[in-house]
Amino acid sequence: MRRASVILILTALGACAKQQGGPSSTPPRFGFGRPATPEEIQAWDIAVSPDGRGLPPGRGTARQGMTVYQHQCAGCHGASGTEGPAERLVGRAPRTGFPFGRDPSLGRTIGNYWPYATTLYDYIHRAMPLNAPGSLQPDEVYSLVAYLLWRNEIVADTAVIDAQSLPRIVMPAHARFVLDNRRGGREIR
């Protein structure tokens, strides 16, 4: 009985695919929605690359970031970034080796695991604060990045973070990641 049910379902799916022009055809429209305009697409095109492409104008310092952090982040990440209940943001230990692959109990923080400083800007800009993602202005995001990098002992408390300085910051774990240089299909180098 079970095999007959599977065959019946597969036959029905095949008939639907033929009726709609096969799996390679464009799916039917459902009568709602519209194509996105170029302006709408551009508004969502906010990716930031490791080399800094996509970073907007703006700037921030750790001192400015401390204020933004207390108002926007401390409720989830704790007063110093080491509490919770959300992910721990601050921490450089262990400073030798890179045991995260062998010991999942070790917390991965900005200071001991993230390979690119620009990823910090990208993530905060897109996803934070949790209750209003994408609501922070570029200066606020740069300030938060400066504050978090300072708290993780990566930059001085006087550092000014902007689109030119952020991509030049070398994160402590940068050399621990392997660049994905695959091209084409399933090959791995």
Keyword list:
189 residues; mainly alpha; Cytochrome Bc1 Complex, Chain D, domain 2; two-stranded antiparallel ribbon; 6 helices
Structure description:
The chain has a domain at 48-176: Cytochrome c-like domain (Cytochrome Bc1 Complex, Chain D, domain 2). The protein has 6 helices and 2 strands; from the N terminus they run H-H-E-H-H-H-H-E. The model is unreliable at 17-22 (pLDDT under 50). 34% of the residues lie in helices and 3% in strands. It is globular, with a radius of gyration of 23 Å.
Reading off the top of the CATH hierarchy, the class of the domain at 48-176 is best stated as Mainly Alpha
Order of helices and strands: HHEHHHHE
Spatial strand order of the main sheet: 1-2
- Global shape: globular
Helix and strand content put the structural class at mainly alpha
The overall pLDDT average reads 84
- Unreliable sequence segments: 17-22
> Superfamily at the CATH H level of the domain at 48-176?
Cytochrome c-like domain
What's the oligomerization state?
Answer: single chain
Using the coordinates shown, work out and report the CATH topology of the domain at 48-176: Cytochrome Bc1 Complex, Chain D, domain 2
Helix content: 25-40%
Cα distance spanning the termini: 48 Å
Question: In angstroms, what is the radius of gyration?
Answer: 23 Å
Number of strands: 2
Q: Which CATH-level-2 architecture of the domain at 48-176? A: Orthogonal Bundle
* Strand composition percent: under 5%
Largest sheet: 2 strands, antiparallel
Tally of individual helices: 6
